[in-house]
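Problem: given the chain below (434 residues), write out its structure.
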Amino acid sequence: MNMLEPIPTITLSNGLQIKLKEIHTAPLISSWIWYRVGSRDEVSGRTGVSHWVEHLQFKGTERFPADELEKAVSRTGGIWNAFTYLDWTTYFETMPADKIGLALELEADRMLYSTHDPEEVESERTVIISERQGRENSPGFRLGEAVRNAAFRVHPYHHEIIGDLADLLSLTPDNLFQHYRTYYAPNNAVITVAGDFDTDAMLQRITDLYDRVPAGDDPPRINRPEPPQQGELRVTVEGQGETIIGNVVYHTPPASHPDFFPLLILDSILSGPQGLNMFGGGGISNKTSRLYRRMAEEEEVVVDVHGGLPATIDPYLYNLSFIIHPGSTSDAALQVLDQEIKRMQDAPPRQEEIQRATKQTRALFAYGGESITNQAFWLGFSEMFASYEWVTGYVENLEAVSPKDVQRVAQAYLKPQNRVVGFYYPHNKGNGTA
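Solution.
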C-alpha cells in the first residue's frame, strides 16, 4: 500500500479512534496506541507525571505481570517500547503477524488495569530521579532546559518532559493514578496498526477488546498561549567541561500552520535535512548546508551545527545548536550565524537550493515508508497534532514551497526579538569573547 493513500478513521462508540493499514511485504504487524497526553498537559507541581505513568505501565497488570510480559514479548522475537513527548504518550509492539494478539490484548489490559503499587511508585521515583540527574551532567541538556525555560514563560512547553526535580520528589501515588485514570481512556486514544493482516478481521479483534471499555470524562486541557516575545533574551549556563555550546531558538508556528513546510525547507537549506521518522534518519549528511559550510568549514567558528523543527500542537521552537571551535568564541559564532540568517532574509535562496532541500527532505520522508513500524508510527503521530491528511499532503506541500516563501518565513520568524540565545561556558573558560 502506498504511504500516501488516505486511511479512514474508524471510531467506536466509546470514542476510541482506529486507523488500519494493510502492508503485505513481510509477515509483520506493528501496533501502536497513542494517548493525547504529554508534558503539555502538566501544571507546576505535577511536571514529569506523564513520563512517570509511562514507566508504571511496564509494571504489569494482574493478567500480565511485568516479568512474564517481558519474556512473552521476547519469545515472539518482537520489539516493544514507549515514548512520552510534549503532546502525547505512545506504546508500540512490532511482532510476527501471527503473534500480534499478545500486543493487542496487553494494551487493552494496560488501559484499564495497570497496577500502581506504592512500592513500584517509589522504585520508579529513584529510577527517574537518577535519570534526571544523569541528564543534568550533560551540558547540552542543562543549556537546552535553560533556553526553553526562557522561551516559554506561560505555556507548559516551559518544562522538560522528565519533569522538575522538586516535583519528582513530591509526586504521590495518588497523583500518578489520578493522571492515569484521567487520560488513559478510549475517548483520549488512537490505535494505529500497519502490517500483514486483513482489515475487517483486525477491526473485529480490536472492537472485541475495546468496545465495552467505558469512555472517560473529557480530559482537562491547559489553555495558556505564550504571549509574543518582546525582545531577544540571552541565557548563560556555566559548569564543568571543556567545550562552549551554543543554542539559539526562534518561536515558530505549530505543525498544522501553512508556514511549517516553508520552515522545513528553510531548515534543510540552513542546517541540513531532518526527518520526522521515529526510527532511522536515512543517513543524509548536513555538510552541504549553508550554516555548516560557512560556520564549520569556511570561518571555523564551530565544529558542528544542527537544526530541528519539531511537529507540535501549539507554537514551538526552531532550534539551532552548535559546538564552538576551540580556537573561536561564542560572539564570533553568533555573528556568522546572524550573517547567514540575514543572507536568507535579504535574498531568496536559489531554485536549485530549494530543489535539493525538497529532494532531501522528501527522501527522508520516503525512507520511513520502507518500515512497517514507521508507517504505523506516522498513522498515529500525525493524528496527535493534525491528521493523516497532513502526511498524505506532505510531499505536495514541500514541492509547493517557493524561494519567496522561504525568504518570507525567514523574515517573519528569524528575528532577534523572536529568539532566545543561550551559551554554555565551562568554568575554566568563563564567558569571555576574546
